[in-house]
Write a structure and sequence with these properties.
Blueprint lengths: L4 E5 L3 H13 L3 E6 L2 H11 L3 E4 L9 H12 L3 E5 L4 H8 L6 E3 L4 H34 L3 E6 L2 E5 L1 H7 L3 H4 L10 H15 L7 E7 L5 E13 L2 E10 L1 H52 L9 H24 L7 E4 L1 H15 L3 E6 L6 E5 H17 L5 E12 L1 H4 L7 E10 L6 H6 L17 H11 L3 E6 L5 E10 L24 E5 L3 H13 L3 E5 L2 H10 L4 E7 L7 H11 L5 E5 L6 H7 L4 E4 L4 H13 L2
Parallel strand pairs: 1-2, 1-3, 3-4, 4-5, 12-14, 18-19, 18-20, 20-21, 21-22
Antiparallel strand pairs: 6-7, 6-10, 8-9, 9-10, 11-13, 13-17, 14-15, 15-17, 16-17
Helix pairs in contact: 2-3, 9-10, 9-16, 10-15, 11-12, 12-15, 17-18
Length: 639
């Protein structure tokens, strides 16, 4: 085992030689003996001994205490005082140099050895502690997380990451009351946890708080703290991680999740609304059909004429309601053309402004606004519904801000609206009204949801607006806070240009002669009341009528009478074999077959797909006898 090197500093030559002999006998190596402070400092630098045995009184200008101070400062070598003097003043002065021991002459060998071993052990322990502290300090200072030590209520240490995180300098943080860093709502929790740590209680490792920067801004932090020994007492070491981005991501995920759930709910409600509208239109068709049949041959002087016309009017009112439902269910596209939305928005806004003069309308229109493919009437209805909603939110008057823009929508922004990324025309409509709370905001597009009192509204205006916009391949969203107005944003997919092939099938038809014929017609519908009315319509018009109550029966009937049937009126929604499959199978039997689709749904979705495959026409229930007569003649006479 390697012997420990000792440097002896003693100005009495005999005493120095005696000590050297005794030290070597004890197993130590004396690397040198010097008699002055100057020589001691020089030899300590040369030999770097494990320990210096220092006499306090030395020859020359520098005594042993000052020599020990410089050796400790320059080389961090431990010093053991060996002296015949031990008065209180000398001892107090010597202690200020932090010696590793004090041996008073004369001494026994065992006393000297014990003092040396204790000094060496203490020095080794201090070295290990210093290394550990340096490693820990490097870890703390190099950490990307903020770190501080609180001693009592004050910050006694902070690392650079915390200083940067909070915007304070090291000097500013030192001595600051650490409660000032926390949001007032979190100070109670932080105080409870600090007290629990000090008294040794077990608490959760991590918790979240809001922290304040020097500039007054707030951010979310994750706190991890533990009690440590510090400056002779107890302190708390606290790690701070800035989780603002994580919290923002969580909030965004939560918001997008809510949007997705809302979109799914609206999808389900749309399906339900469409089904209700379809069934309701079948009922209206039966009422309308019977009214039309009863009106045949009756002039305006007939006693039943006015009542029958009233029935037709009420049927049309009901049909308007179902059109709103179908609009919500993504229906209502009838006349699709290339549209300049600046023109549509400007005209609708001017009309609204003239009727609601207590509302100040402010408009900004994008120059060279991209074109869209849209049913102008339906989009005007969407705008009007939103204008009316804004007007009702501003009973004392207010401001309406309208703006059109060209925007590019990326995949991330459209993911939860189930639309394609690309070019969109954005229409923003903002009001200064009463705004909406969170519950209303979540339900604003639901059918039949209204904040108005009973009898003041159907709750279908914004629901149909939602459906119409979705049916045009776009989406609509709304931002609002209670007392801060509302802003609706409509996004419609833009096109590069061109004309639309889809045009309105017929102009408005007045009371003219009915189109008649004697051809054979196959009428296909699963509703008996529709078959009764339709069959009577067609017979009154002079046609020969065959009927089928489902798809399978329609195929069998057409096969059997293929060469006699001139046209098929086909219901689109039927149990078992639906209208689309029936059409395809009829087309396979006879490529020249003429088919008119009939449905309580509007011309969109499946109906549009069937028309695109070559179907000849479409008529929506409820229809009048004159509508059917014109539609049938138009298809039969078309070459």
């Amino acid at each position: 085992m390697k012997r420990k090197k000792l440097l002896v500093v003693e100005d009495d030559w005999l005493a120095a030689e005696d000590m050297k002999m005794r030290l070597e006998a004890l197993g130590y190596a004396v690397c040198d003996i010097v008699s002055s402070g100057k020589d001691a400092i020089e030899k300590a630098g040369d030999h770097i001994p494990n320990l210096v045995l220092m006499d306090i009184r030395l020859s020359g200008d520098m005594d042993g205490i000052e020599t020990a101070r410089q050796i400790r400062r320059r080389f961090s070598i431990p010093v053991l005082y060996v002296s015949a003097y031990a008065d209180r003043e000398l001892m107090d002065r010597a202690k200020r140099t932090e010696p590793y021991g004090y041996v008073v002459k004369p001494f026994e060998d065992i006393e000297l050895q014990a003092a040396i071993e204790v000094a060496l052990y203490k020095h080794r322990a201090e070295l290990k502690l210093r290394e550990s502290e340096e490693r820990y300090r490097a870890l703390v200072e190099g950490s990307l997380d903020g770190v501080f030590v609180q001693h009592g209520s004050k910050i006694a240490f902070s690392n650079q990451a915390l200083q940067k995180m909070l915007g304070y300098s090291k000097a500013e943080l030192h001595g600051m009351d650490h409660w000032l860093l926390y949001h007032p709502e979190d100070r109670g929790v932080a105080a409870e946890r600090s007290q629990a740590l000090i008294v040794g209680e077990e608490i959760p490792s991590y918790y979240e708080v809001k922290l304040q920067r020097k500039d007054g801004s707030w951010f979310y932090g994750e706190i991890s703290a533990r009690a440590i020994g510090f400056q002779g007492g107890r302190g708390i070491l606290t790690w701070v991680k800035d989780i603002s981005e994580r919290k923002a991501a969580e909030e965004e995920k939560k918001r997008l999740g809510a949007q997705l759930r809302q979109a799914q709910k609206m999808e389900a409600l749309g399906t339900l609304a469409g089904g209700i509208a379809h069934d309701f239109n079948n009922i209206l068709m039966a009422i309308q059909g019977n009214a039309s049949l009863m009106l045949l041959g009756k002039g305006s002087n007939h006693p039943d004429y006015e009542r029958l016309k009233n029935i037709e009017k009420y049927v049309q009112n009901g049909a308007h309601l179902t059109r709103q439902l179908l609009g919500f269910a993504r229906g209502g596209k009838y006349d699709v053309r290339v549209v300049d939305m600046n023109d549509v928005v400007k005209q609708s806004a001017e009309m609204f402004g003239r009727t609601k003069k207590e509302i100040s309308v402010h408009s900004i229109y994008e120059r060279d606004l991209w074109k869209v493919e849209a049913d102008r009437d339906q989009i005007e209805q969407v705008l009007l519904n939103i204008y009316v909603n804004a007007w009702q939110a501003m009973p004392e008057g207010g401001d309406l801000y309208i703006r059109t823009q060209n925007v590019m929508i990326d995949d991330h922004s459209t993911r939860h609206y189930q639309v394609k990324p690309g070019k969109y025309v954005k229409i923003s409509i903002a009001d200064t009204g009463v705004g909406m709370n969170e519950e209303t905001l979540q339900r604003v597009f639901e059918p039949f949801f209204t904040t108005k009192e009973m009898g003041k509204g159907t709750g279908l205006g914004l629901a149909s607006a939602y459906g119409i916009v979705k049916n045009h391949g776009g989406y609509i969203d709304v931002y609002s806070e209670k007392g801060k107005g509302a802003e609706f944003n409509i996004y419609l997919p833009a096109i590069e240009g061109g004309d639309m092939a889809h045009r309105q099938e017929d102009d408005e038809i007045g009371d003219s002669d009915l189109g008649r014929g004697n051809e054979a017609i196959l009428l296909v519908d699963d509703e008996e009341m529709i078959l009764d009315v339709g069959r009577e319509f067609l017979r009154k018009l002079g046609y020969r009528v065959l009927v089928a109550r489902n798809g399978e029966e329609a195929i069998r009937t057409y096969k059997k009478n293929k060469h006699e049937i001139d046209i098929v009126i086909l219901d689109m929604i039927m149990p078992g074999m639906a209208g689309g499959e029936v059409y395809d199978r009829l087309k396979a039997l006879d490529p020249e077959v003429k088919v008119i689709l009939s449905s309580g749904y509007s011309l969109n979705g499946l109906a549009g797909e069937i028309l695109a495959r070559g179907c000849n026409g479409f008529i929506q229930k409820p229809f009048k006898i004159r509508d059917l007569s014109i539609k049938v003649r138009d298809i039969l006479e078309k070459k």
